[in-house]
Amino acid sequence: MASAPASLLPDLNPEAITASGKDAEKLNLPALQSKMKSDPEGYEMELHLIYNQFKSSMELFQQQAAMSFTSVSGIAADPTVAKDLGDRALFLAHVTPFYPKHLAQFPRELAQFLRSSARTLPSGLRVHVTQALILLINRKMVDIVDILELFMELQTLGDRTLRTLAFSHIIHNIRHMNQKHKNDPKNRGLQNILFSMLQQEDETKAKRSLITLCDLHRRKVWFDDRTANAICTACFHTSPRIMIATLSFLLDYEKIEDDDNSDDSGNEDEQATQQPQIVLSKEVVYKAKHKGTSSSKKKKQAKLQRVMRSMKKQQRMSSEKNNSSYYSPLNHLKDAQGFAEKLFSRLQTTNERFEVKMMMLKVIARTVGLHRLILLNLYPYFQKYVQSHQRDVTSLLAAAVQACHDMVPPDAVEPLFKQIVNQFVHDRSRSEAISVGLNVVREICLRMPLLMTEDLLQDLVLYRKSHEKAVSSAARSLLTLFREVCPSLLVKKDRGRPADPKARPKAYGEVKVASNVPGFELLKDDNTESEADTDDGFTSSSDIDDDVGPSEVEVAGDSGSSDGDDNDNDDQDIDDQGTTSEDDSMQEKNKDSEDDDANFSSDNTDVISDDDESGKADGHDPAESSGPLSIASETFRTDSGGERGYKAGKRKFSDFNEQLNAASQSLRALKKLAGAREGSTSETNDGILSNEDFQRIKELQAKKDASIALAQHGFKIPSTDQLSAKRVDAAKLEANIRKKMTKEERLALIRAGREERGKYQARTAIKQKKTGGLSNRQKEHKKAMPLAAKRAKVSRSRQEKKRKQQRSGKQFRGRKAWK
């Protein structure tokens, strides 16, 4: 074994130590440690003495381990020797930074000592030597890459204290190493060690490496594809325990909470900035608060609240999906198809118990749904277990729903779909089974609507009239889905008022290809509407060119009336179904306004002709007259009945040719103005969108989603990506099902209701415990009465007693039996 150079260590003999008054047996190691740290050069002799003692004791333990010496009389049987060796190892580890040349070989000797004789050492000595090695790692005297394999082996010795110490140090050291930035070279070296241990056939080593990798992945320290693929590969380990542990981690990953020690300040800031934004039109909010009766207002306001809640939930789900916290090792499989096929082949040949098969089936279904894989043999395998009396059938059905997506041919899933309907949804089935079956049918049709036929849908929708709440709500949810997906499959009375009556599901393999920036049409429509608004109005002189004749007033008025009609029609679509009377009144108002606009436009044409004629009579050309002056000269009046008229002089009729010339000149002016505007828009719109445009698109999209949600009563069909990323919860398939409580649960519920209630007391007892003053009867007893009143009261009581006695003496006692 290597030792320190002889030139660096002074010659020592016991006489010199005794002469100096520093006996080795009386050395106080903590006091000596503090002195050596303050004056390293003055205590080199003591360092040499303690180092030699440590090496001699270590050699004895190594020789005992080499000879497999297990006798009771061995050196390990003496606890004082083991304690002295552990104390000296900790002492030397503390002073190593102050003596780098004298103790250069000490860390290597300590690690070699643990490798060679860790199994034969006492538990306390193993822990002390490991603590000394950890201290050297923290002081940067030893690299974690050189010592990781040793620490992984120490966890397999069966010592719980040592296992906890080694495991916690590995996790803490790797977290601290990647705290500020990712140290990729070191991470790759450490990962290679753990990955090689994970693939070994030794179950204990593979299990410890798997636990370490899973913990680092859960804490988001090693959050890369390499670690995720290594964890998923452990599903094919030869040991069933390793496979079960990996499957449990993959299934329960989304339920694992984040580490409490992790810094979440950045995440809180991001969450604060990403609050869901709900954009509702002012008109809808105004109608909900100010129009209609009180009951209709309540309905509209409740509908607004439902829509806002649903939209906030959808935005929160989308932000969680875009956030890095939404992550599972299955998301980043390099060969997802190969992983699913290999695991499914192992499932078909395994002899494990039913619970393990269910776990494997869930992982396969999750992978198929997440990556939208095609595994056609999976669906006939599900058919073996789809029965109402099967154990854990709800979890099995949730896995079957998870494995369905739009890339699977409908013919492959149709036998499974029919079996679910036949086994669960029939008249002789229990209400719980019917509700679960309807919910499963709804979830499958949400992903693959082509499976549903018209006759089957109409039969299933009839269950909405059931007296069981779970069954009726499941049937109504299926009806609501097909009102949006394909209303033509429903009977006309069941269609309601869908957003798109001609909606149909996409055919198998049909894909919509985006040819433009998403939402660009909204921005374009918004720009056209804003330009139309600026062109509208009669008193704005800046928007009217000098070459425009009076006929432009008529065109603007017509466009404004058409816009108003469109807005009214949109408002009618947004209103509730229950407010039909308001819709009728709104339609009558729209008709009246259209009649008024028509009359107004005819009046304007008459006026224009009069003006043209008057202009000709005066010698002025109507085309040369300025638009603003002619418009400003027009005066409108409003009658008491609400009809609009025009205040003008006596009408004059001119030749038809003059009117035709004036109309042609005004038409040329309109064409000229339209060409100028097209040129200006072509100059400004160069096809490149700015940040303001994207922000405006986002606002318009939110406004459109709000209007659609109002029309659909808050119901929105999620996209394909959202369905594939969403995990199907088996508990939601059993919604609204009332399960019978056990006696213990009922008693617990009763006791929970009695906690806040005090001890039982009679009502009279509660009344007697008064905290206020005396009652009226008590006050009457204590009232001071005059002497005459007291005598009268006494006499009345005497007379009452006499009457009672007389009545008791004359009372009939019945006839005697012997007479």
Provide a descriptive summary of the structure in words.
The protein is mostly helical and 819 residues long. Among the domains are: 29-187 and 207-213, no CATH class; 284-314; 358-504 and 712-732, no CATH class. Helix content is 62%, strand content 1%. It has 34 helices and two strands. It has helices at residues 14-19, 29-38, 44-66, 79-95, 106-117, 123-138, 144-154, 160-177, 184-198, 203-218, 225-233, 240-251, 265-273, 282-290, 294-322, 336-349, 354-371, 378-383, 393-402, 410-424, 431-447, 454-461, 469-485, 520-535, 551-574, 580-618, 627-633, 656-684, 691-711, 720-725, 743-754, 763-768, 776-781, 787-809; strands spanning 636-638, 644-646. Strands 1-2 form a two-stranded antiparallel ribbon. Strand 1 and strand 2 form a beta hairpin. Helix 6 (123-138) runs parallel beside helix 8. It is extended and about 115 Å long.
Give the helix/strand layout.
Layout: H1 14-19, H2 29-38, H3 44-66, H4 79-95, H5 106-117, H6 123-138, H7 144-154, H8 160-177, H9 184-198, H10 203-218, H11 225-233, H12 240-251, H13 265-273, H14 282-290, H15 294-322, H16 336-349, H17 354-371, H18 378-383, H19 393-402, H20 410-424, H21 431-447, H22 454-461, H23 469-485, H24 520-535, H25 551-574, H26 580-618, H27 627-633, E1 636-638, E2 644-646, H28 656-684, H29 691-711, H30 720-725, H31 743-754, H32 763-768, H33 776-781, H34 787-809
Antiparallel strand pairs: 1-2
Entry summary:
Belongs to the SDA1 family. By secondary structure, the chain is mainly α.
Helix content: 55-70%
- Which strands sit side by side, in order, in the main sheet? 1-2
Head-to-tail CA distance between termini: 134 Å
Number of strands: 2
Report the principal-axis shape: extended
Biggest sheet character: 2 strands, antiparallel
Structural class: mainly alpha
**Low-pLDDT residue spans:** 1-25, 70-74, 256-276, 537-653, 679-684
Rg over alpha carbons: 45 Å
Mean pLDDT: 74
Beta-strand portion reads: under 5%
Number of helices: 34
